[in-house]
Protein 1
Amino acid sequence: MEKCNLDPVKSPIIQEIILSNRIGSISDEISKRLDIEPLKALELFYASKTCEDLHNKETGLYLYSDLYVVDEFLFEQNGKTI
């Protein structure tokens, strides 16, 4: 019997689950910092360039911490860039 060489972490389904979990944490932190409802924070984040960049592996943003991503989002909302 041949051993399966598939790495479960590289599975697109697993990666999507991890990213969804991260987006929940990011939105929760945005909600706290802006003192807004969590659903509103999620809506704002999903509509942002920061969220788009988080999904784009070429930007490398997915490699950074959730708090860094929150800061990036807040800079974006204030019309600033890092």
Note: The mean pLDDT is 89.
Protein 2
Amino acid sequence: MKKYVCGPCGYEYDPAVGDPDSGIPAGTSFEDLPDDWECPICGAGKEEFEPVD
């Protein structure tokens, strides 16, 4: 699964880790995140994230 990085702040969403503070379990792909999920650092929406190779 691809990692995604937040454009405004640089936070990297890693599907292997998830976002436990937001109740997102490890193994959750970026595409499977809820539409209203936001960056846990700056609050940016999913549309602000870009895939990382």
Note: Residues 35 and 46 are 7 Å apart (CA to CA).
Protein 3
Amino acid sequence: MNGAILPIIPENITVHLGRPNEAARNVTVSFADYIKNVASSEIYPTWPESAIRANILAQISFALNRIYTEYYASRGYDFDITNSTTIDQSFVYGRDIFENISQIVDEIFNDYIRRRGSVEPLFALYCDGIEVQCGGLSQWGSVRLAESGLTPYEILQYYYNDDIDIVNDAPVEGLTESYPGTSLRLGTVSDDVNLIQTRLNRISKNYPGIPKITDQPGVFAAGTEDAVRAFQRQFDLTPDGVVGRATWYAIARIYGAVKNLTDINSEGVPLSDVTLLFNSRLEEGDTGIAVNELQYFLAFIAAFNNTVRPVNIDGIFGPTTRGAVEDFQYDYGLTVDGIVGEATWRAIYGTYRNLLDSLPDNYFTSFTEPYPGEPLRIGSRGASVSYLQNYLNRISDVYTSIPKLSVDGVYGSATANAVREFQRIFGLEETGVTAAITWLRISDIYRTIVDGEYGSDTQFGTSVS
């Protein structure tokens, strides 16, 4: 995914001027110039504007799908896409660009199509619809639809079904490879580990010889190592249990294949599969959900370590939060700068998990359990999921748009939908994933309904005042 968990618009794209295995030049051009070239090569500037816009959006999405899935990088190539029209789309290096097409591309080059519920750009297959037929957009057919009055979005819905969205104004960034640069191995804790765990668990559905990973998300423990070794044996890689570059890209390639990500009817990548566990950098002045989660962990740690000052969970990284970070860094032998970089974040998260795991089962005396330390999402199982389902069921007595759940300890689509509705009601990001801030808000609302208490002395459900 070229270093991005969610899709970005690349500043530049490298095009191979031939078929993948053909000896040919690679050229690197800006992404906007690439789309202008493709559009000028594939369609006519005299077409109705609605047809031109629909075709350009398909061309953008097609290219972004190649980049997001690292289709060529995961196969060992040093380019992002080819100009072979049998597998990619037309690109004629150095050709003239039509003025009206150039203007439209400048306006929409950072928009793309995605399937509702998925994050990856749609593999927007298209063909001319006369000499070549395909299961996607018909270029000449789009002209007829535009002439009949359909908008660009309606044209795209006609060919790609109603469950598509247009993402507008996606961020533009430089491309970097997704491989983190250092091998992942036993003991590594990072979002890259979480990504590999998610992908291997999905691959194991098609290759049952690869065991399911039940390790803590983001933590490279024995179960992750066993799954990596099994994958490596399955695909003729050195079975050392270490995710180096070759294994990383082999996993990316097989993951894309089993989910059919380069197919118009792909399984898709849900947002829950790319939810970040660790933040790369937080500092004074930052705001938002990531700060909420940091403050939650710090406040919990402060309840057991009186050398770390308590903080309010308000999503604002102010002087008090900076002071708590500095307290923690001093106590745990880290550079004392008040900035939450990767090392500090991992230490805070690890300390929270260790505290949680060390407490006796009967320690918690209030109505709610503390956050289990890892995001709950589709596929999660266990007591924490049962607690969550119970809390949501009680909340749904008051907020009736939240559906009732079976308390079975299994985080399926029904639980994700109930969480998503809760998040909608209370102004949280609607991911369907229960990370720290969602857990805390559910706990607060549940306790408020049950006994009216909002007290900070019980916000973690502990006996510590």
Note: Residues 453-459, 461-465 have pLDDT under 50 and may be disordered.
Protein 4
Amino acid sequence: MMGMGKGLSFILITLLPQNIIFIPCIIGIGVSGFKLYKSIVKDRNKDNIKIEVLRHTLFSIMMLVGLTIAAIIEILISTNILKNFIKYF
């Protein structure tokens, strides 16, 4: 039983911090892409499509910043927490 608690805490320490940011960013990009698709299929007006593509592009850039922050957290913070965790156990 004691090994299961250590393993669970190990998994939470290594996976949780960056995935708090990573998973919502990926879901947001998917929803934004689906909304772009629906607006293209529904409305054939080129001006409206340009606005939707611009909106999707700006949102994707914001999500890219979020994914970059998640990667930095994984590289810097998670590894340092893991090193301290290994010393503790």
Note: DSSP finds two helices and no strands in the chain.
